[in-house]
Amino acid sequence: MPMPKPNGFGPRGFLTDEEKQNKPKVTKALLVRILSYLKPYWPQFVLVFLAILLSATVGLLPSIITGRIVDEALVGRNMKLLIQLLLAAFGTLAVSQVIGVLESYINAWISQRIIFDMKNQMYNHLQRMPHAFFTSERQGDIITRMNTDISGVSSVISGTLSSIVSNLATVVTSLVALLSMSWQLALVGMAVIPLLILPTRSVGQTRWKLLSQSQAKNDEMNQMINETLSVSGSLLVKLFAREEREYARFVELNKDVTRLNLKEQRSGKWFGVVMGMFTQLGPLLIYFAGGWLIIRRADASLTVGTITATVALINRLYRPVQSLLNIQVDFTRSMALFTRIFSYFDMKNPIVSKDNGKKPDMGQADVCYEHVVFSYDPEKPLLTDIHFTVPAGRMYAIVGPSGSGKSTVVNLIPRLYDVLGGRVTVGGVDVRDMDLAYLRSNVGVVTQESYLFNGTIRENLLYAKPDATDEELERACKIANIHSYIAAQPEGYETLVGNRGLKLSGGEKQRLSIARVILKDPKILILDEATSALDSISENAIQEALEHLMEGRTSIVIAHRLSTILKADRILVVQGGVIAEEGTHESLLQRNGIYRELYETQFRTILELEKK
To answer: In which band, very low, low, confident or very high, does the pLDDT at 390 lie, cut at 50, 70 and 90?
Structure first.
């Protein structure tokens, strides 16, 4: 879970138990890989580090000038010098701030450029991952890698890295200045540092635990909000009349979050009081030690101004020392962040286009399955010996029991998956030897669940052919029996379809997806249960569109509707990982085999309903 960044004396300088268990192994290869993203911007990094060093050095001057104000201007009653020193102090503060702004700007520029590079690389990489990746990975994890993790690189560059360099520069310059003014007072001031560390570790652990619990409850509450207030979730709540129950559950979660937040904030306030007292102890000890040295005349060179400057510098030292003590935590989190990102980059894509991939003529090409073997799980074989040929221009139907692998068979043609044995050929060429973009551009797929982007009807249609003219769009939509519906809308082709096309009915979405495939004009057509979830009126309109679409094309249809199956040139029955039966409707019925059983249990009932 995402936690607050470490900074200051808060509890954030600790690793959770999960972070400790999953602590990444830091290797030279990992560091070199991270630096490869920083390397193009090394001139800017040099500027940042020079700005930090200059800022840390200039930041010393106000404290040193304060000592001179006390010793020379106030004690010497020199008004002119007082004004000059005050102006000098103000000038150094202004210069320090300007340098800080410059450093911050360059840092932000570097961070955003690196994020830009990594997001481009990640999106390009994920776009080319096989279909299996998206069916196995959780969508939330993919989005987290793309957005949260890569955006977190900004905090590593402008936060962790710059903070470490800045704190080191501040500590080193402050120590040099302190020891050069009075090594005795410097040691007294530094003696307080252990008192700042010990309570921070103990009290901080408690606060960190409370923050972790609060974050966990927040995650649970966000999950509930996401589920119950989404379109599908809210509909489910209403249909089962669970509004009161869900509200009560939300109140309990909200109560737990509020209780933990208040508890953490209370402990934080008392912790702040204690730490405030300790940070003031150092200056008090310096005043005491300095006063003793002056009163007892133990150090004739020591002045009140030196004591004042030492106090200012010691206060400047405490916070960066505390931050540097948490370098390990910051470093571990940064390495974990890059490790998560690289884990996605390192995922191999087995389905790639070969160099100089073949581009055979697919217009009049047979589609052949030659003893194809495939499974998603090695221990659960799905297709063990699929062997058949679809002649060019013919329409074959695939039927079989649920889970027999019908969709998997057709998904092997556009290489959504690759065979584990045997081969699939188009026009005698193994699809694995073909140019992948060329192959997929010549294969059209219409599935049961049509997916539309959240945009206009025109934008969704142009996804198939970006340069399509209005005439081409209208022609495709007329063939798909959807043009009349579009023309009747006030916005016409500029009508918004909503998220996933929710503003359209199932039949309207399906006809739009068919129009999109018509615009693509594929040589091979795959229909995966394209009408199984539609009413009879919608199906008739779509069936007419599909028949027009299939004319002259090599087509493979997975269908539950007998009316569709009857129009096939040949029917393939998939069961037990093989083509168990093959033939026409009449010949398969006469065999009294699997097809006859499917006909009696599924198709016949559906046919009777269709007739009604």
So the answer is: very high
| Reported confidence tier of residue 9, pLDDT bands at 50, 70, 90 | very low
CATH number of the structural domain spanning residue 64: 1.20.1560.10
Q: What's residue 501's pLDDT?
A: 77
Tell me the pLDDT tens digit for each residue of 432-483: 999 998 999 999 888 877 788 888 999 999 988 889 899 999 988 988 888 8
Range with the poorest average pLDDT among 183-192, 279-288, 301-310, 372-381: 279-288
Give yes or no for a contact between 569 and 396, defined as CB atoms under 8 angstroms apart. Answer: yes
Domain that holds residue 98: 26-182+302-345
Task: Give CB contacts under 8 A, 24+ apart, made by 453-458.
Answer: 453/497, 454/496, 454/497, 454/498, 454/499, 454/500, 455/496, 455/497, 456/491, 456/493, 456/494, 456/495, 456/496, 456/497, 457/486, 457/492, 457/493, 457/494, 457/495, 457/497, 457/512, 458/493, 458/494
What is the reported pTM? 0.70
In terms of Cα–Cα distance, which of 364, 419, 415, 393 is closest to 577? 419
Read off the amino acid at residue 68: R
pLDDT at 10: 41
Residue 221 CA to residue 256 CA, distance in Å, equals 10
Among 301-305, 351-355, 363-367, 594-598, where is mean pLDDT lowest?
301-305
Contact status, residue 170 vs residue 316, Cβ threshold 8 Å:
yes
| Cβ atoms of 545 and 514 closer than 8 Å | yes
Given a contact cutoff of 8 angstroms between Cβ atoms, the answer to whether 367 and 554 are in contact is: yes
Within a domain: 156: yes
> Using one digit for the tens of pLDDT, what is the confidence trace for 18-64?
555 556 677 888 888 888 888 888 888 889 889 888 888 888 888 88
Task: Give me the amino acid identity at 139.
Answer: Q
Say if 14 falls within a structural domain. Answer: no
How high is the pLDDT of residue 41?
87
Neighbours of 269 (CB within 10 A): 9
462 in a domain, yes or no?
no
Dump the DSSP string for 464-499.
Answer: T-TT--HHHHHHHHHHTT-HHHHHTSTTGGG-B--G
Contacts of range 538-546, beta carbons closer than 8 Å, 24 or more positions apart: 538/505, 538/506, 538/507, 538/510, 539/507, 541/481, 541/507, 541/511, 542/480, 542/481, 542/507, 542/510, 542/511, 542/514, 544/481, 545/479, 545/480, 545/481, 545/511, 545/514, 546/446, 546/514
| Number of domains the chain contains | 1
DSSP-assigned letter for residue 354:
P
Which tokens belong to 529? Answer: 């249960």
Residue with tokens 């009508």: 495
Q: Tell which residue, 210, 191, 107, 85, has the closest CA to residue 157.
A: 107
Cα within 13 Å of Cα(222), Cβ side:
7
CA–CA separation, 290 and 292 (whole Å)? 5
CA distance 393 to 554: 4
Helix axes 162-181, 304-325, angle to 10 degrees: 150
Asked if 442 contacts 522 with a C-beta cutoff of 8 angstroms, the reply is yes
Q: Residue 261: exposed, middle, or buried by beta-carbon count in 10 A (0-12, 13-18, 19+)?
A: middle
Provide CB contacts within 8 A for 478, sequence distance 6+.
none
Reduce the DSSP state of residue 166 to 3 states and report it.
helix
Q: Is residue 116 part of a domain?
A: yes
**Burial (CB count within 10 angstroms: exposed 0-12, middle 13-18, buried 19+), residue 551:** exposed
- Which residue's entry shows tokens 């996605």? 344
pLDDT at 270: 60
Q: What mean pLDDT comes out for the span 266-282?
A: 65
